[in-house]
Amino acid sequence: MRRVLLLVVAMVAGLVGAVASPQVANAAEVVNVVGLSPTRTAVFVRSPAMNQVVQVQILHPAGGGSRPSYYLLDGLHPGVNESTWTNATDAERFFLGKNVNVVLPVGGFASYYTDWDRPDPRFGNYKWETFLTRELPPIIDGQFGGNGVNAIGGLSMGGNSAFILAARNPWLYRAVAGFSACPDTAMSMPAIVASIAMRGGDPTNMWGPINGAGWRDHDPALVADRLRGKALYISTGTGLPGPHELELKPQLAENILTGGPVEAMVFACVVGFEQRLRGMGVPAHFAYRPLGTHSWSYWQDDLHDSWPMIGSAIGA
């Protein structure tokens, strides 16, 4: 009888091992860590979902201890060697002394930080939602002091993506921020389609046929109730030249000629999104700037303005 029992236990253990081993084999893993400063670390993660190594930079306190994490996403043209948040704003200096991990993915050109239905000939195999919501958080929490409390935010494309990811994974985030972003996929669909197509990608490879079920499945406005109870911050300018257009910068003309009309469209879209949330009784803070274009100086201002709300929600 004892031999039979041992044999059954061994068989069960073998079956459990056979089921569990693929999960272990397919887990994301850190392949390299580079300390860039006492408060900034580059982490290179092998993503099974995307079958590539993804760099993530973390802004963090100099000391130890556990802390919440703020995933901060880039725009359509993300940095190549670092997030544009650290080379176009004062984010690194701003977060000094704050008890939070600021998690900055590097890459994701025109990806909308989502899982694409099909590999795209221009962009490759994008599976950003899986990476950001399944593969990366256990690494941040297990190896870099994260305590499991998270917020997510971003600008423009990254802001839309932050709300999409939060609506699809509401258990993961306590706060969401979007700067110059309109997270109403139906309203912003023409801009999303154009932004991908103009960069050589096929928008139907992302969520399937335009305005089909896949696009509706990624529309926070349709499932805004999932955002209830979170701290929500959305900002936009009007597109009219503002105080930062008085600064002499190399991109000044582009900010006015291109960033002005883009921001005006975002403004109109955000007004509609606010009406949608109000109609559903979902509280959110909308920061309307009377002036300002679609440009980094304003997103730096938004980062500062939103932090008391975001930081408080995650206990940072």
UniProtKB/TrEMBL annotation:
Signal sequence span is 1-27
What Pfam family does this protein match (any one)? Esterase
Q: Which UniProt keywords apply?
A: Signal
Q: Which GO terms describe its molecular function?
A: acyltransferase activity, transferring groups other than amino-acyl groups
Q: Which InterPro entries match?
A: AB_hydrolase_fold (IPR029058), Esterase-like (IPR000801), Mycobacterial_A85_antigen (IPR050583)
Q: What is this protein called?
A: Esterase family protein
Q: Which organism is it from?
A: Antrihabitans stalagmiti
